[in-house]
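Exercise 7. Given the encoded structure of a 327-residue chain, write a plausible sequence.
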């Protein structure tokens, strides 16, 4: 029996309800008014390109954004949309530029937990940054206890920057908001790419279909279960001792095999789909492969770097005899 480090994720998923499935013109700079009191929530129209050109003029690296300390008029002139937020009445300012269009920027007060500072009350929110966006923040950088934190989020990646003075050197020039090693560490697992065989599902009946926005692009994909078994007129399923099964994610014209088409003797395929609110609302699909003598569980998520599906094995048990499988 082999249990990897992500077994805890499986335990969490299994506590949820399981779905058993048998069956480029230059635009003028737009000035947005500032505020000193109530939280601000603003929205912007998403552009086709995910990359903010205002960021690309500084860097092509993989951070989520940058901060320009004491920006000049020339720095501001490169922006299509310049938004202002004044936390303090001061001459000090910083310019925040996200790397990706459609990023979420939040400014919050902070609270010390005894171990670290965490975001508390939201003061400002930009839900979806447009092309050429920058946020001009007026605030001092305290030398002691920080007062506010900036959070930039894009899909399942997030970065927090405490606004505090950087010791003797101070804060000058450009600071890149780079993910730490733990946050940017690539998940282990296999990348699942679309099948190229147009006859992949021939001879199988679709037993179930469920829609979910797996990659957070605003368009739903579908999770589909196929089997060689038949469906009776009353909707019940008719099986032999063994038959071929397939579990796929359909994205447009592409078919991703979450579990490859396989002959399963005295067994079945199941899955549980859920949203993890502690993982930036990432969609997970837990796939369960069961036969009379072995069990394998996989966790399938969307991989932003490859644009495909990441499948990670959570648990495997072989040479077993299943005594009871209640459902």
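Solution.
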């Amino acid at each position: 029996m082999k249990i990897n480090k992500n077994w805890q994720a499986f335990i969490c998923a299994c506590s949820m309800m399981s779905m058993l499935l048998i069956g480029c013109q230059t635009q003028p700079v737009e000035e947005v008014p500032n505020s000193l009191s109530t939280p601000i929530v603003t929205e912007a129209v998403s552009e086709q390109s995910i990359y903010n050109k205002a960021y690309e003029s500084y860097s092509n690296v993989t951070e989520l954004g940058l901060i320009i300390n004491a920006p000049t008029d020339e720095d501001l002139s490169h922006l299509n949309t310049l938004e202002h937020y004044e936390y303090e009445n001061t001459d000090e300012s910083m310019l925040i530029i996200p790397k990706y269009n459609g990023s979420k920027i939040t400014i919050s007060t902070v609270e010390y937990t005894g171990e670290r500072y965490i975001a508390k009350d939201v003061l400002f929110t930009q839900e979806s940054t447009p092309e050429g966006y920058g946020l001009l923040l007026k605030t001092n950088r305290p030398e002691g206890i920080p007062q506010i934190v900036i959070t930039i989020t894009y899909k399942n990646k997030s970065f927090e920057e405490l606004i505090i003075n950087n010791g003797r050197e101070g804060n000058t020039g450009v600071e890149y908001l780079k993910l730490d090693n733990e946050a940017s560490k690539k998940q282990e697992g296999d990348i699942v790419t679309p099948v190229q065989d147009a006859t992949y599902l021939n001879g199988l009946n679709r037993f179930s279909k469920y829609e979910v926005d797996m990659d957070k692009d605003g368009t739903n994909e579908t999770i589909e279960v196929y089997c060689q078994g038949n469906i009776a007129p009353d909707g019940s399923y008719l099986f032999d001792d063994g038959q071929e099964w397939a579990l796929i994610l359909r994205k447009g014209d592409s078919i991703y095999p979450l579990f490859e088409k396989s002959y399963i003797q005295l067994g079945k395929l199941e899955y549980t789909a859920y949203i993890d609110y502690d993982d930036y609302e990432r969609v997970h699909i837990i796939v369960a492969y069961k036969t009379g003598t072995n069990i394998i569980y996989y966790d399938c998520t969307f991989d932003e770097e490859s644009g495909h599906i990441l499948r990670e094995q959570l648990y495997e048990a072989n040479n077993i005899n299943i005594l009871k499988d209640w459902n």
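Remark. Confidence is low (pLDDT under 50) at residues 14-30, 35-47, 181-186. Students should compare their own answers with the one above.
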